[in-house]
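Quick one, C-alpha cells below:
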C-alpha cells in the first residue's frame, strides 16, 4: 500500500474520532450547569467558581508549555482571562443561582447567534439572510423564555433576572472570544487556553478570598466535591482538549453543530434530574434558540472553532 493510499484509508477513522471528540466535548459542556447547581447547594458563587477553575488548572497543567509573549500579547491575554473567567463565570453562575438549570442551558443556545452578530460588528463579516433570520428567531426565543420566568417566582424556580444575567455573561464571553482569536493568530490554541485558565484562576483568587474569605474545606459533602471536580476536570479542561483536538480533524463548520448539545443536554438534565418545569412558552423559546443555533453552525460562515479554544 502506498503512502497516499494509507493516508486515505486512515481518513474515515480520523473523521469518526474527530466527530466523536467534538460530541464528547459538547456533552461535557452540557453538564456544566447541572454540576454547578449541585455545588451551589453548599458553596457561594465565588467559592464554587474558584474550586471549578482550581480543578481545571490541575487538568490543564500537563498541557502548559513555555511561551514567549510580547508586552502587547500579555496585555491581551490578561484582558481575555479577566473577561473569560472571573467576570463571565461569576456573573453566569450568579445568574444560575437565581434561575433553573433548564432555563440557563437554553440561554447558552444563543451563543452562536451572539458570536455571529459580534463577528458582523467587530470583524466586518457579512451575515446573510439566514443569519439575520436566525438572529430574529433566537431573540424571540429568549423573549419567550424570560417572559415565562415572570410566572415562576418561587425560590427554586426560574427568574427573569437570572435568565438575563446568563445572556449578559455570554455577551461578555464575546470579548474573550475575539481577544483569544487575535492571540491564536500568533500562538497555539492550547497555549492560549492554558495560560488564560491559569491567569483567570489567579484573578478569581484575588477577588474571591478578600470578598468571601478562604474557600471552605470542612463540612462539604462528597457530592459537592465531585460536582466541583467534574465542573473543572470534565466541563473545562477535558472538554477544551477534546474540542481542540476534534476541530483539527474535521471541518469546523460541521463540528460547530455539536456546540448545540450543551443547551439541549443541559435543559434535559434540569427537567429529568432536578425537577425543573418548562412551560409551553419556554419549550417554544428553546426550540427557536436551538433551531437558530443549528442554522448558524451548519450553514453560516462564522468561525465556530474559536468559540471555546
Amino acid at each position: 500500500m502506498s503512502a497516499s493510499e494509507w493516508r486515505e484509508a486512515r481518513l474515515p477513522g480520523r473523521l469518526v474520532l474527530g466527530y466523536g471528540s467534538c460530541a464528547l466535548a459538547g456533552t461535557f459542556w452540557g453538564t456544566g450547569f447541572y454540576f454547578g447547581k449541585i455545588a451551589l447547594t453548599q458553596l457561594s458563587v465565588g467559592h464554587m467558581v474558584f474550586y471549578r477553575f482550581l480543578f481545571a488548572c490541575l487538568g490543564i497543567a500537563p498541557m502548559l508549555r513555555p511561551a514567549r509573549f510580547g508586552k502587547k500579547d500579555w496585555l491581551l491575554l490578561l484582558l481575555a482571562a479577566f473577561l473569560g473567567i472571573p467576570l463571565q463565570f461569576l456573573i453566569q453562575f450568579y445568574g444560575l443561582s437565581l434561575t433553573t438549570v433548564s432555563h440557563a442551558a437554553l440561554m447558552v443556545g444563543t451563543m452562536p447567534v451572539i458570536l455571529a452578530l459580534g463577528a458582523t460588528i467587530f470583524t466586518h463579516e457579512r451575515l446573510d439572510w439566514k443569519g439575520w433570520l436566525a438572529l430574529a428567531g433566537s431573540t424571540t426565543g429568549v423573549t419567550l423564555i424570560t417572559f415565562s420566568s415572570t410566572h415562576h417566582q418561587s425560590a427554586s424556580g426560574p427568574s427573569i433576572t437570572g435568565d438575563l444575567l446568563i445572556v449578559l455573561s455570554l455577551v461578555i464571553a464575546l470579548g474573550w472570544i475575539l481577544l483569544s482569536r487575535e492571540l491564536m493568530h500568533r500562538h497555539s490554541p492550547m497555549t492560549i487556553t492554558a495560560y488564560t485558565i491559569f491567569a483567570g484562576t489567579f484573578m478569581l483568587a484575588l477577588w474571591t478570598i478578600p470578598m468571601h474569605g478562604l474557600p471552605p474545606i470542612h463540612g462539604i459533602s462528597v457530592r459537592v466535591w465531585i460536582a466541583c471536580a467534574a465542573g473543572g476536570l470534565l466541563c473545562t479542561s477535558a472538554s477544551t482538549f477534546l474540542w481542540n483536538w476534534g476541530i483539527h480533524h474535521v471541518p469546523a463548520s460541521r463540528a460547530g453543530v455539536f456546540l448545540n448539545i450543551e443547551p439541549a443536554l443541559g435543559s434535559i438534565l434540569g427537567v429529568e434530574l432536578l425537577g425543573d418545569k418548562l412551560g409551553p412558552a419556554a419549550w417554544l423559546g428553546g426550540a427557536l434558540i436551538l433551531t437558530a443555533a443549528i442554522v448558524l453552525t451548519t450553514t453560516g460562515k462564522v468561525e465556530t472553532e474559536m468559540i471555546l479554544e
